[in-house]
Amino acid sequence: MLAAARQLLVREGPGAITHQRVAQEAGVGRATAYRHWPQPDQLLLDAMGGADLPLFKDPSAPIRTWLHRQLRQMADELEVRAVAAMALTLAHSALWDPAIAHRQAESVRTIIERILVATRSAVASGELETEISAVDVAAMLVGPIVYRTTMQQGTVADDLIDRLLDSIGTWRD
Amino acid sequence: MLAAARQLLVREGPGAITHQRVAQEAGVGRATAYRHWPQPDQLLLDAMGGADLPLFKDPSAPIRTWLHRQLRQMADELEVRAVAAMALTLAHSALWDPAIAHRQAESVRTIIERILVATRSAVASGELETEISAVDVAAMLVGPIVYRTTMQQGTVADDLIDRLLDSIGTWRD
């Protein structure tokens, strides 16, 4: 069931991780899924734990368009209240659970590394001029989207994503 | 004791909210404070609940300098691990506790309103030119600082604060 949940997660995103869909994908009864994960949060948490999330993976030119698409997808996912709840649960659990803390640190590092690969390629092709470090770029792009969806509990307009992209350097066509 | 904790919080910030300081301020023994709040998180949470936090209050010109100071102070507070933990606990508790959710929504709204007052005054004086809404400005300024201190678990350089301020419009001297 866990493998099925991860496949669903990579294919369709966190919104697809329900007991029903996971049971269906794994070819077992729904009751079996409920028995393994009595709390809905835990199912998604376990699924995300070992999954290689597709976010910010494999950049393609033009990088600005690609980054916009990645941030749009992240925002769409976090706008689903269950996903925002899961992100908060994960961050909160990391305070006292070393395994979750390790997993979260790894995922934060992965985002920074992928953003580094993407911005480097944009700088190399002349599409982007920037002196901002990848860790700052990650905070400037991802931070406002996480804050909007979890703390302000609102949606992310494409307009805001454009402003975030504007803020990380000078883009050329 | 709660009143003492809130006075401390407003005067010295969340870092000052320890059992010892609160007991001292209230003129009671430390054991009494521990008896009321067996969990350290809860003491800070209660103290923050009713406090009128000074952050982003009473803007003064030049607004950019003032905003930088406010964001620096917010970052300094969140860099204290207990404060970041409290912020995450508060956000997580809001998922299932309507009273905390209400309190948190109010504090998010207060920040937006205060940022609106500050940016309006900067626009009126000709210091700032911007078309970005206050709710987006709040997400672009506060989001990266919260993300850096809670998720990336790093510190906020003044340099990053300057980049965030650059991102919300065009500043003039």
Automatic annotation (TrEMBL), chains A, B:
Portion annotated as DNA-binding: 18-37
According to the entry, every stretch annotated as the HTH tetR-type domain falls at: 1-55
Kindly state which keywords UniProt assigns to this record, in alphabetical order: DNA-binding, Transcription, Transcription regulation
Q: Which one Pfam family would you cite for this protein?
A: TetR_C_11
Can you tell which superkingdom this protein's organism belongs to?
A: Bacteria
| A molecular function GO annotation | DNA-binding transcription factor activity
Instruction: Respond yes or no to whether keyword Transcription regulation is given for this record.
Output: yes
Q: What is this protein called?
A: HTH tetR-type domain-containing protein
Q: Which organism is it from?
A: Nocardia macrotermitis
